[in-house]
Amino acid sequence: MKLAVVAANGKVGSAIVMEAVARGWEVTAIVRGGGSTGGVEGPGARAASSILVKDIMSLEAADLAGFDVVVDAFGVFDPDRQGEHTETLMHLADLLAGTDTRLLVVGGAGSLYVDPDRQTQLVDTPDFPPAHLPVARGMRAAWERLAKRTDVHWTYVSPAAFLNPDGERTGQYRLGDDQVPVNSAGQSVISYPDFALALTDLVAQGLPDRTHLSAVSK
């Protein structure tokens, strides 16, 4: 398996790289370069088989040629930069359009539905944390654009409502559809390592085409 992880030094990106490398896959970490959060010194880059130092918007089709799967783990939290979620995702989709390479997108929980009729998304609920509204809306806008694309083989995976930065790798999780998932304790939570495990398991099993999934701890 040949995997490219875009934004490989983010929290999810690093976890995916390390999970994939542990499986013996050939993993290329794509990082911006420079700085403490995007450079080649980060954990994702250190664990990868190889490193490509390049900004997402500077990537060309040749940079992504030959990979089985390209993972988009890009995320930005600055309220003034939320348009970059759509801009970068559409750029990657354009580069992979018409190819057999799969685009696996690390999504946000805000676009998951809270009702069986799929009328209300999590980001639109009254108790959604105000501090997280900009990034949730930015990621939802990107998802809505991706959902219309039929020229690229994409899979969009949202974490549970709470992506626990301090959670451990339990090796146990459950996949769901595009509704907010809950575990056996009635909680919608998953750790970064278990979310990365869910994503790499999907790659190993074969990514469902043009599907929105979710993952929650057991």
Write out key terms for the chains shown.
218 residues; alpha/beta; eight-stranded mixed sheet; two-stranded parallel sheet; 6 helices; 29% helix; globular; NAD(P)-bd_dom_sf
What is the secondary structure topology, with strand pairs?
Layout: E1 2-6, H1 11-22, E2 26-31, H2 43-47, E3 50-53, H3 61-64, E4 69-72, H4 83-96, E5 102-106, H5 133-146, E6 153-159, E7 162-164, E8 173-176, E9 189-191, H6 192-205, E10 211-217
Describe the structure.
- With 218 residues, the chain is α/β, with parallel strands linked by helices.
- The chain is built from 6 helices and 10 strands; from the N terminus they run βαβαβαβαβαββββαβ.
- The chain has helices at residues 11-22, 43-47, 61-64, 83-96, 133-146, 192-205, and strands spanning 2-6, 26-31, 50-53, 69-72, 102-106, 153-159, 162-164, 173-176, 189-191, 211-217.
- An 8-stranded mixed β-sheet has the order 3-2-1-4-5-6-10-8, sandwiched between helices. The chain has a two-stranded parallel ribbon with strand order 7-9.
- Strand 1 (2-6), helix 1 and strand 2 (26-31) form a beta-alpha-beta unit.
- Helix 1 (11-22) packs across helix 6 (192-205).
- The model has no long low-confidence stretch (mean pLDDT 95).
